[in-house]
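[agent] plan:
  1. take the single chain provided in the ticket
  2. run structure prediction with default settings
  3. attach structure tokens to the ticket
  4. add a short note for the reviewer (M.T.)
[agent] executing step 1
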Amino acid sequence: MRQKQWLGQRKVLIKPPLPSLSRPFPAMRAKARTIAGRIRLSGEYQETIVSYMVNSPSTMLSKGEKYQEVIRDVLAVLDGEPDVTARMATCVSLLNQAFEAWFWTGFYVVDKVKKAAGTDELVVGPYNGTLGCLRIAFGRGVCGAAAATRTTQVVPDVHQFSDHIACDSRSNSEIVVPVFDKAGELIAVFDSDSESFGTYDDEDATHLEKLMAAVFSI
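[agent] step 2 finished; step 3 output follows
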């Protein structure tokens, strides 16, 4: 709750401070989630608290532990939020902040209008990074392959992938995960690129598939 403080003739609104960043990391994150739970990450405090959780020291965490933290944070933020675009944007934001090696993170969404007309095509959705390709046909490149086969594509070296689409020439490895709604219909693919070779592996695939199912297959 805000506190009012009078300074002469001026009324100043003072926000309560967040917990000290000098506290041990596990306690910091536990406290952050407690605060998030109490106010349901709503209104003006949402950005502050989510940033506080994500920007806590993570170098000591394994990849699996990072995913566990991100999945918990994503689900806490999205509790009660039905909008698909908001859900995609939140996944992009928190994943992009958690994994420094990812320079492009985003979604390509199934174009419903073209699908109704008999054409299978992806159109770019919420993302973070350099300019993405606007449209990708099913079967083209890594994203198109994931959409056409409905299976996750883990590519340690994109230059060895047949028909790879170089939306950004810096990309050297990539992962693409199909996204399904609760009826099992493909609605999008999640895509991430890295400048390093071999950034993604089966562990990434497992956790990202779990996250996509928890967020969109509900």
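[agent] step 4 note for reviewer: The longest strand covers residues 102-110.
[agent] ticket updated
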